[in-house]
Amino acid sequence: MINSYKKAFTLVELMIAMFVIGVLISLSIFAIQLVQTSVRNTQRLDAMNTLNLWMASYHIDNRTYPRQSEIILTPDAITFSKGSINEIIVELEGATTGANSTSTNSTRYCYQQLGGVEGATFKFAVELENGNIKEVGNANATCTSWMSL
Predict the structure, then answer these.
(1) Could you give the CA distance from residue 141 to residue 138 in angstroms, rounded to a whole number?
(2) Which of 21, 73, 95, 131 is deepest in the core (most CB within 10 A)?
(3) Per the UniProt record, which residue ranges are transmembrane (predicted)?
(4) pTM of the model as a whole
(5) Whole-angstrom distance between the N-terminal and C-terminal Cα of the chain?
(6) What is the sign of the dihedral through the CA atoms of 43, 136, 107 and 31?
(7) Looking at the chain, which runs of residues are DSSP E strands?
């Protein structure tokens, strides 16, 4: 007697295969989101380090740090503006988007020049997507005037 059964997958085997594929896709999406978050946080930290280097150079040239009113924070860039001088310190492309603990579509930055007219100290801070705050500068004070970009 000859068996005339066709070799095929059963419904249960197909459902298990679809379940496994679904789990793999969901894990992949989660991993991609983690990588994107890491990239945005790296861009934020890079912008902060660039600003810190610019501040050191400015302080060497002028023996003071720029006033708060001279540092302009926009979603596109951090700019120094004094009189007729308007200089982009660092571009913020990609460093202002993404979720953080207070907003789903912006990043909080803070710049403070402390020490009165002499501008002896400064503090620059950024809030990362996990809610951690990273600061640079030589001031011991915490930032109080946050801007969401």
Answers:
(1) 9
(2) 95
(3) 12-35
(4) 0.74
(5) 78
(6) positive
(7) 71-73, 77-82, 85-91, 108-114, 121-127, 133-137, 146-148
Count of residues in the chain:
149
Distance CA 98, CA 93 (A): 12
Q: CA 77 to CA 75: how far, in whole Å? A: 6
96 contacts 84 by C-beta, under 8 angstroms: no
The amino acid occupying position 73 is L
Q: What is the pLDDT of residues 103-147, one digit of tens each?
A: 455 788 888 887 766 667 888 888 888 888 888 888 777 777 787
- How does 51-83 read in b/e, with b if 16+ C-beta sit within 10 Å? bbebbeebbeeeeebbebebbbbeeebbbbeee
